[in-house]
Amino acid sequence: MRSVPPLWERLQPRAFRIAATCMQELAAEAAPTRGSYRYDPIMMELPTIRVALVTRELAAQVRALRVAPDQYSFVGDVEFNLVDAERDPQSDAMAILAGDEVIGFYRLDYAPTVVAWKPVPASVGLRSFLIDRRHQGHGYGAAAIEACCADLRRRHPERHLLALNVNCINRGAIRAYRKAGFVDTGELYFGGRAGPQHLMLRSLD
User: Fold this and answer.
1) Domains of the chain (ranges plus CATH)?
2) 89: left (phi over 0), alpha (psi -120 to 50) or beta
3) How far apart are CA 146 and CA 151, in angstroms?
4) Chain segment 102-123, per-residue pLDDT in tens
5) Tell me: the pLDDT tens digits for 137-150?
6) Strand 101-109 vs strand 91-98: parallel, antiparallel, or unpaired?
7) 88 and 112 Cβ atoms separated by less than 8 Å
8) Which domain of life is it from (predicted)?
């Protein structure tokens, strides 16, 4: 049987080609159109985005988070993920905060096969990532990913990859994750309840 190199080794030669393609796509999407509004950082200063383990004090705000109806099949049920993460020693329920206000949620899984369905060495799984519908479209998602990575580097320096699955039809999320530094491995997971999912990775180093 022909040996297969580890996933990250196979990903590396593809990363440059994929990154170049993503840069072209994002540049085209960012091109100004007549009458379009462009974000000006001088005009609008975003609050500091940070992440924290969900505590009893934060849990009520997390439960109040809402997304658009067509997004629920992608992000799952927040209440379930809070309860499930609490009873799972290999999982963390995380709150995303702008100042002192909870604006989002995600879950971290440290078991090697939860997200990737097969071991990805030294990885952490990112699941159920969401920004409340009232706060979408302001760059909070990208800032939250950066805060998530910084938190993992601080608390789990032995982990080197952040892995997630994103549904193939969720084009907006795919673009957002690429912009946040994730690379599509080209591998698909067919067990998702909303359809096939891409496996995407981001380096924590």
Assistant:
1) 7-28+46-203 (3.40.630.30)
2) alpha
3) 9
4) 999 999 999 866 666 667 888 9
5) 888 999 999 999 99
6) antiparallel
7) no
8) Bacteria
Phi, psi angles (nearest 5°) of residue 115? -95, -45
Query: Measured between alpha carbons, how far is 166 from 200 in angstroms, rounded to an integer?
Result: 8
Residue 144, phi then psi, degrees to nearest 5 = -70, -35
The CA distance from 30 to 85, in Å, is 37
SS3 106: strand
For residue 152, the 8-state DSSP code is H
What span, in angstroms and rounded, lies between the C-alpha atoms of 146 and 150?
Answer: 6
- Tokens representing 126 are 């990112």
What residue type is assigned to position 177 of the chain? Y
- β-partners of residue 96 are 51, 104
pTM of the entire structure? Answer: 0.74
By residue count, the chain amounts to 205
Yes or no: say if 96 and 131 are a contact pair by the CB < 8 Å rule: yes
